[in-house]
Design a protein that fits this description.
The structure is a single chain. By secondary structure, the chain is α/β, with parallel strands linked by helices. The protein has 2 domains: about 10-130, Response regulator (Rossmann fold, 3-Layer(aba) Sandwich); about 135-230, Winged helix-like DNA-binding domain superfamily/Winged helix DNA-binding domain (Arc Repressor Mutant, subunit A). Helix content is about 40%, strand content about 20%. The strands form 3 sheets. It has a 5-stranded parallel sheet, with helices on both faces. A 4-stranded antiparallel sheet has the order 6-7-8-9, with helices on one face. Helix 6 crosses helix 8. The longest helix is centred in the middle third of the chain and has 14 residues, at about 115-130. The protein is elongated. The protein starts with 11 loop residues before the first strand and ends in a 9-residue tail after the last strand.
């Protein structure tokens, strides 16, 4: 079975967030995934941008310097019943999350978060609203990965992966032949504020190789001095 690559997404995403680090983290990652991204740094600017353009999904920080995120959620849900809304919040209290969902938000992500976690939420919300952006199943080299059911099979047999291992494999399979540096993998899988050592990437990739039967390192290649890449269409590990 050959690898099925997704076509670029046509979904338009509005981000209303005031933290520059998070904005750049999301802008770069979402643009690479094929989304069209616009950014507002405060609530009023976000409302003006929303009124001037059409968007499929809103990523909204609840803690903004001017207009409260919950009020923005209320207004935009009233203006557009089809808009998908994902909340970003540093608050862990249940009432804040419930309030956002009661106002019409589709989902929420609590800071700190990894890009892959948010990307999975985006895909899920868009699917629920009838706008699938990519196939949920990708396959290559005898590996079948289903992002909707979080299942992986190799040569017909189930493979039990941890959440981090699953996220790594999905990222590799959706972007074959691309070289990911350890720093990029840390940002995408562990989150923009991860403070640990890059060796954690090597450890997880070692375990992932073992579980998918890639002891020869011919599928997940080590690109020395650069990082790792997924090469399902090349048999020679030295190629």
């Amino acid at each position: 079975m050959t690898l099925e690559e997704k076509s670029p997404s046509s979904a338009r995403i509005l981000i209303i967030e005031d933290e520059q680090t998070i904005i750049e983290f999301l802008r770069v990652g979402l643009a690479y995934e094929g989304f069209q991204v616009e950014v507002a740094y405060d609530g009023w600017s976000g409302l003006r941008l929303f009124n001037a353009q059409e968007f499929d999904l809103l990523i909204l920080d609840l803690m903004l310097p001017d207009l409260d995120g919950l009020e923005i959620c209320r207004r935009l849900r009233a203006a557009n019943a089809d808009l998908a809304i994902i909340l970003l919040t540093a608050k862990r209290e249940l009432p804040d999350r419930i309030a956002g969902l009661n106002l019409g938000a589709d989902d929420y992500v609590t800071k700190p978060f990894s890009f892959e976690e948010l990307l999975a939420r985006i895909r899920s919300v868009l699917r629920r609203r009838g706008r699938p952006q990519e196939q949920t199943v990708v396959a290559a080299a005898g590996i079948v990965l289903n992002s909707a059911t979080y299942e992986v099979h190799k040569d017909g047999k189930a493979v039990d992966l941890t959440p981090k291992e699953f996220a790594l494999l999905e990222l590799f399979m959706r972007h074959p032949r691309r070289v990911f540096t350890r720093e990029t993998l840390l940002n995408r899988i562990w989150g923009f504020d991860f403070a640990g050592d890059t060796n954690v990437v090597d450890v997880h990739i070692h375990h992932l190789r073992e579980k998918i039967g890639d002891r020869a390192k011919s599928l997940i290649r080590t690109n020395y001095g650069l990082g790792y890449s997924f090469r399902p269409d090349e048999d020679d590990p030295l190629a």
